[in-house]
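Researcher: Quick one. three chains, 869 residues in total.
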Amino acid sequence: MTEDKPPRKEESAGLMKYSAENLVPFGPIHPALKEPEYFKLVLEGEKIVEVIPRIGYVHRGLEKAAESRPWVQNMYMFERTCGICSFVHSLTYGQAVEGLTIYEIPRRAKFIRTIIAELERIHSHLLWVGLMGHWAGFETLFMWVWRDREVVLDLVEAISGNRIHKSMNAFCGVRRDMPEGMEDRIVERMKFLVDRANYYKGIVDTEETMLERTEDIGRVSAETAEKLCAVGPMARYVGLRRDIRLNDPYAAYDEVPFDVVTSKEGDVHALLKLRLDEMIVAANMVSYAVKHLPEGPIRIKIPPVIPAGEHSSHSEAPRGEIFYYVKSSGGRTPDRVKSRQPTMANLPTALEILKGQTIADVPVVLTAIDPCFGCMDRMSFLDIESNRQWTWSGEELRRYGINYYFPERMKMR
Amino acid sequence: MINEILQAIIFPGVLFTIAMGFLFDWLDRKTAARMQGRIGPKITGPSGILQPLADFLKLLFKEEIIPSHADRVIFLFAPALYFLAPLLSMLFIPIIGPTPLAGFEFDLLAILFLLAYAAFVVTILSYSSASSFTTIATGRLVLQYVSYEIPLVLAIITAALYSRSLSVEGIVASQSTLWNILVMPFAFGVYIIALMAELEKPPFDIPSAKTEIVAGWLTEFSGRALSFLKLTKEVGYVFGSALAVSLFLGGGLGPEVAAVPPPVLYFVYFMVKLLLVGFLIFVLKTALARIKIGQATELFWKILTPVSLAQIAFVLVLIQGGVLVAT
Amino acid sequence: MPRRRAGAAIPEMFRTMLEKPSTRAYPYQKVELPARFRGKLDIDPERCTGCQVCAMVCPAGVITMIDIGTRKVGDKELPVKRPVFELSTCIFCGECVDNCAFKALEMTKQFELATPHKEDLTMRKALTK
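Model:
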């Protein structure tokens, strides 16, 4: 770092008050984490007193990269933010940009978007249930659940051509129509998935060793969760009835009926059953949408120049609320794109839950929030000698960049 | 003399035990895979049967990395000490006839000593590789050992009490009319559960919890040491099942078949029972999740120890009353 | 409240053991791909006119246009270009396929593209015309 640093606020008291014996590092590379993040656990015996996170290991600078690419290319870039929730990212970005234009999305496109989004929800929840089995040591559940997940991935491949990066979204529509004759196959496969989900709910309820791992773990009060802005299943499992599909419908969610699943007991076992229930709801939604698919165009081609203005959009990803803000000044590239992922909103709640748990529960709790650190990463500054952590505002970052590349310009001011 | 040496080294001694260890590993992986809807090992050898051997040979050729804080002497030599325990114990089990290779009158006590010795060597091994993960693993290991040892020993002693003999050969011989499992089924159950805790199979693979503390006490080992540690676990698996077969299922005893010479028949019965016990453990291991160390301790102290004590009391009553007394 | 027991998964385990395993033993077993599978790009050199639309819409910068000659339009000499595809950068989105007005591009079903030579993945088929 250079000498002329802009002034900054000290944000974390640092780790000086804890002695080294009590600090156990969790991460950045750990078998329990799919993506690297560094959590310092302060222990007292086996109980955790505090968790100090340090993020930024997989920060890719996507928001900055978006400023130099045309609008349509950004759609593909944001689709690759995350592999599991890729469609919802491109959907929310598309909705944010469509809000700047004057065009309406055709009804058939809305239904197809809903179908793909719900298929993605099914696949994400199945992935998560399998992972819970894996962390708890229950390999059999992991293998079975991921085998059933292949059903969804094969369907998505038949519709869009790829299992993960569906590339189905376009501005004001979808790129491809549903293939001919898929309706019966989709309905039958959804019925199969509902049966399997009911079976897994039975297993989770009766298997003694699984119950011992997941019951009474991960409790947080509803007030704390609300204060810490938990989103998605993390808000719903303590009883808060929060769902963007219900509160602020987008795509075809005002036409396709569904229930919002909440739970009264806030532990990891309740989270398991809640996500399996959401999966069943999603499967029923897909069957309904496929049977009631309206006729019409699937896309309106819009010019590559988006009018000036700013717009934001949010949607319900499998993990929670995804929020995109887009600012345009009438050009071919955006001025600013900001994306806020649900794991970023759920992380304070997760750290709050971890206080009071034992070290054996750390993987279970950290997986219970369904983390996707690749999506959520941010940059922060850390001074190793004094152990101080701080962040910069956008203005400070801009000033530092200008000062670094064009010092004469700063001196002229 | 030469005959005995050959028997001790090749069959049914060292090489046979190692080959059985590989066979059990292969069966374990195949049945677990089939129960989970997968295939399991496939390419090395017909249906993948040479896969455990391939894994063992591959590890032998890998580089050994010793952490700087670790105790070099223990790190390099203690795996061999650990390997001795189940291998020696196998010599006391009758496999191709009513007399084992090295049996003597109190060899059950020798087996109990070797079990404790194995756990002790594991603790030293785990402690010698000083890293944050292995320290946690050592604590869990010792806790688990303290919990499972008492029910295990009590279950073994129940069979010895009932058969009035402290040698494995004697216990097997006393089951010629009635298998021990029919008299003391709970002791068999307790033995199997305690065996799973000793072998660190799920639900008790807490000390080597793959997803929590990397690989538990095996974390820092690599190369030859790791290959022998893994082989020892497999041989321990074989030995534990062989002991169950001898103590509770009547060893190689079974109905006579005319045209088959007795040693072959003995061996066939023994193998069938061994594979059955192994299969039982495979199924249990695949079907259960991993429980926490506190819950495992509770299970052993609060449930299994009283059950095994009650079983001993029951057997003593039977002996006193003269009912079902073995010959 | 359903009864808690250990080994609740055992009946299903035995049922699964008797069924066919669901592993597809790739590469010893061929994998069937759906019709819409987006694999390696292929170009029909006869149909390509060098309009450059594919190079402009590609999000990954795969396509570069190369001059291969000139043609007379009226009394002007205009360059004739053809695309060269650097397929190792391709993200298989299909934008070029959708936007080609002459239907010269298509995505094949070939997905085994790993190669030790990067030159194998540069497609110059369109230049031969």
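The longest helix of chain C spans residues 10-18.
Researcher: Thanks, that's what I needed.
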